[in-house]
Amino acid sequence: MDSEIGGFATVAHKVLSDILLAMKIIALAALSLDGYMTRHDDEGNSFTSGVEKEFFARVLNTFNCSVFGSATFDAAREQILAAPPARRLRLVLTTRPEAYAPVHKHGFLEFAAGPPREIAEKLRERGKARCALLGGTRVFTDFLEAGLIDEFWISFEPVFFGSGKRLLEGRLDRALELLGIEDLGGSVLVAKYRVPGNLSAL
User: Fold this and answer.
1) So what's the architecture of 2-201 in CATH?
2) pLDDT tens digits for range 112-132
3) Torsion over CA of 153, 135, 199 and 62, rounded to 10 degrees?
């Protein structure tokens, strides 16, 4: 019986890996040099420079979906709702999807609850093969722990804050591989890292 259960688990893991194989999830974040995504208690990325905002807007157009938490949505709510419908699906993760029903627009701006692997599988089934993960801390951490992040693209702004929201939380021990560094000008650098050992690499 134990061997049968073990065999089933192996097959199930392979099936899930195959489902996610063609899907690429890249985490995008801007950080201060001391590792904060926000300035102190501020929400959002108001501290980022013009060159970083231009970079973010440019690369975001290369994805056909973006995933982020409700706090990230709430911080940029007016900007997101005022923007014209994009070809990219915006999926907001929340424990209360029903609370956002008035602004839900199927295929454009959606709200959902569920564990990362379930979310990723459903996106893959809908043909969303290239997904930008935009935070916040809990979303980045949950997707990394689930083995779903292929790459991190980190924009480093030349500032120190001393406090704010971190990129990740909890006790983690993951090594990354540097893919390259892009100089945006204005002392802003983007470092791109691959995450070895994620599900799509198995």
Assistant:
1) 3-Layer(aba) Sandwich (3.40)
2) 999 999 999 999 999 999 999
3) -50
For the whole model, what pTM was predicted? 0.86
Q: Are 113 and 91 a contacting pair, CB within 8 Å?
A: no
pLDDT, one tens digit per residue, over 143-165 is: 999 999 999 999 999 999 999 99
List Cα–Cα distances, 78 to 15, 36, 81, 82, 83, in angstroms: 40, 24, 5, 6, 9
pLDDT band for position 140 (cuts 50, 70, 90)? very high
- Cα angle 90, 95, 96 (rounded to 5 degrees) comes to 85
Half-sphere CA count of 103, side-chain side, radius 13 A = 19
Asked whether 123 and 64 are in contact (CB, 8 A), the reply is no
Q: What's the distance, Cα to Cα, between the start and end of the chain in Å?
A: 26
Say if residue 90's pLDDT is above 60: yes
Cα-based distances in Å from 175 to 92, 151, 172, 178, 197: 28, 12, 10, 10, 10
- What is the reported pLDDT for 123? 97
